[in-house]
Design the sequence.
């Protein structure tokens, strides 16, 4: 029996850009992913009304070309109430209690399904990606931030308050660097993109890396510069990335030891720019695993999609509207 193809729009709102795409329930992307910059006001607060204006041409075009279009999936970089679509706390956008889901619904007269980006990415990897048959895995992103989400015993794991997942805020050094979460010394402050750039800058300031100094052309050392130098075997850059791999391995091994995971899917800007980091984490993590079984079976995989959260926004629409009949806890 042939099934009618149904479509939805996925939208991923990141800290700097908004990505949009049209998808079917097999996770197929129609046309190209469109990107528009997040519009910020003079106080560096993202402007939700201008955001809706910016995405309107794309959505109207999709409404004209794809039918039936059953909804809009919204993935947002922060805490989102999945029932109301309210962006409860999104530090990168400087949003607190913005009813963005309801605003999008009013603007386009389509059902809206909103959620946190890491949760969406986890769903996409489980439904259409490398974790397709996994029952116990973690999604881990290394980019501007570091953290992820859990999929346990066949379901997305939300926790008691719905706050489960941010393992980047496990403390590594209680007297360490201040963290965006308000505490100190979280793993994120040692391994995310800004930490890599900071370590690169320190190496240049100490005169340890003429290569990174020349690649930054007199400006601040960026994460990209450290990665570029790493791929050219610069000793200082190699030691920075090696230390990042070691700390991520310690952090993730804690999850695997506590939760008996079978797989970790790693994504985000740093992993995309530096896939060798994944191999180094894979190398170091074996040392910290408790059981021979985990050492033998644990798989570390790179994310399947260019933007797993965008695919996940679409997946969320199909799962929560019942087009995809899988009880994944979405
Ligand atoms: Zn923190």
Sequence:
């Amino acid at each position: 029996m042939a099934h009618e193809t149904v479509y939805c729009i996925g939208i991923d709102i990141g800290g700097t850009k908004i990505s949009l795409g049209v998808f079917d329930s097999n996770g197929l992307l129609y046309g190209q992913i469109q990107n528009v910059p997040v519009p910020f006001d003079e106080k560096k607060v993202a402007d939700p009304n201008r955001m809706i204006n910016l995405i309107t041409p794309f959505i109207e075009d999709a409404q004209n070309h794809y039918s039936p279009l059953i909804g809009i999936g919204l993935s947002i970089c922060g805490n989102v109430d999945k029932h109301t679509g309210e962006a409860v706390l999104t530090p990168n956008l400087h949003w607190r209690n913005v009813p963005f889901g309801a605003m999008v619904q009013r603007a386009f007269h389509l059902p809206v399904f909103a959620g946190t980006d890491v949760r969406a990415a986890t769903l996409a990897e489980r439904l259409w990606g490398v974790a397709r048959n996994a029952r116990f895995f973690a999604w881990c992103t290394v980019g501007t931030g570091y953290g992820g989400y859990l999929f346990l015993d066949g379901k997305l794991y939300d926790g008691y308050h719905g706050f489960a997942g941010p393992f980047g805020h496990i403390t590594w050094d209680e007297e360490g660097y201040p963290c965006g979460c308000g505490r100190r010394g979280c793993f994120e402050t040692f391994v995310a993109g800004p930490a890599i750039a900071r370590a690169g800058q320190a190496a240049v300031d100490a005169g340890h890396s003429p290569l990174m100094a020349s690649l930054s052309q007199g400006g601040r050392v960026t994460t990209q510069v450290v990665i570029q130098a790493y791929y050219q075997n610069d000793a200082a850059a190699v030691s920075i990335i090696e230390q990042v791999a070691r700390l991520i391995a310690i952090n993730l091994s804690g999850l695997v030891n506590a939760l008996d995971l079978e797989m970790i899917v790693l994504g985000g800007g740093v992993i995309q720019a530096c896939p060798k980091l994944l191999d180094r984490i894979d190398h170091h993590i074996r040392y910290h695993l408790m059981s021979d079984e985990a050492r033998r079976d644990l798989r570390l995989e790179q994310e399947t999609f260019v933007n797993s959260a965008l695919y996940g926004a679409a997946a969320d629409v199909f799962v929560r509207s019942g087009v995809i009949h899988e009880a994944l806890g979405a």
